[in-house]
Fold:
Amino acid sequence: MGMATAGDTARFSTDVYAHRLREAAAGAAAAGLAGLIITPGYDLRYLVGSRAQTFERLTALVLPADGSAPTVVVPRLELAALRESAVPELGVTVRDWVDGEDPYALVAAAIGGPGTRSPATAVTDSMPALHLLPLADVLGTVPVLATDVLRRLRMIKDPAEVDALRKAGAAIDRVHARVPEFLVPGRTEADVAADIAEAIVAEGHSEVAFIIVGSGPNGADPHHECSDRTLAAGDIVVVDIGGPYAPGYNSDSTRTYSLGEPDAEVARRYAVLQRAQADAVAAVRPGVSAESVDAAARDVLAAAGLAEAFVHRTGHGIGLSVHEEPYIVAGNDIMLEPGMAFSVEPGIYFAGQWGARIEDIVIVTEDGAESVNNRPHDLVVVPV
Structure:
C-alpha cells in the first residue's frame, strides 16, 4: 500500500491504521478487557502512525473494546504533533487538555468512567510509572499489560509492512556493498563506523540505529560497537549495521570480512557457520517452531565441534523495533506463521582471537521464507 507522506514523517495509508485499530479493539474484547490505553512508543506508532514522545504530560490513545470511537488525550501544546500521524483522518476523537486539568480523569472517562467498568483495562508495556500509578488510582484498579492483545498483531506483518522491510533490506545491502572500500589497514574501527553511518543515511535510512565494527579480537564480542583499534592485514572484521527506513521499519544485516586471504582454519570454521546459517533459513516455514530454526543452526555448529562458540540466540523479530517478537531461541515453541519477520544470525566467537556472524532478515511466506537481504554470504575477502 502507498505511503501517505515522505521523509521522516512517512507513514502508511489511513486504511492500514484503521484496520489495526479495529483488530486491536476486537482483540481487547476477546480478552474480556474494557479497552486499551496506549502511551507513546512503538505500540502507538503501530496503531496510528504517531511518533509522539513520552514526557511529564500525558498523551494517550484510548481504544474501547466495545467498538466505540477511539480517543486521543493530548496536551494542547502537543496538538501539532498529531498532524504527522493518521489521527486526523481516522475519525479519532481528540481531547486536548491544559496544565491544571486532570488528564487521567479524561482517560478514565474515555474508557467508560472511573470505577464504572468491571473488566480490566490494559496498558502498553512502555507506559512509564509516572503515568501508570495515577491512572491506576483514578481507575480504581491496576491495569494489566496489553502485550497479549498486541503481540500477534505486531508479529504478523501485513503487506505494507513486508514491503517496508524489503526496502529497508535492499538499502542496507547497498551499504554492505560499499563496506570493503572502508576497510583499509591503518584506519580505526571508529573511522570505518563513521563512513558506514554516512552511507546508511545516504542509502535512504532516516537515521542510524546501530553500527558494530568488530575487528580481530573485538569480533569475538557479539555486542562490541567500535573502538580506536587500528585495522591490520589478516584481521577478520564483523560488520553488523541497521537503521529505520521510511516509514520506520528497520534493517539489520551482518556480514564478515577478511583483510587479505584468511588462514585455513578460519576458512574452515567460517564455512561451517555459512552452512549453519543456510540450514536455519531453509528450516523456516509455516507450522514449524521458532526453536526448531534455532536448533537447525546450532546442530550444524555442534556437529563440527563449535557448539561452545555460538553464545546467543539465532534470531529476533524486527519491525518498528529492531528487537521484537518472535525470538528464535531454544524454549520458544511458538509456531511460525506467514508474515512473521525475524533475523537468522548464527555466529561463532573465539575470545581474544576473532569472531564471525552472518545475518539476514527473513519473512515467513505461505510455503517457506523470503530473505530481504541478498548480499553473498561468503567470507568477503578485501584485498590489502
Observations:
- The longest strand covers residues 236-242.
- The first helix runs from residue 14 to 30.
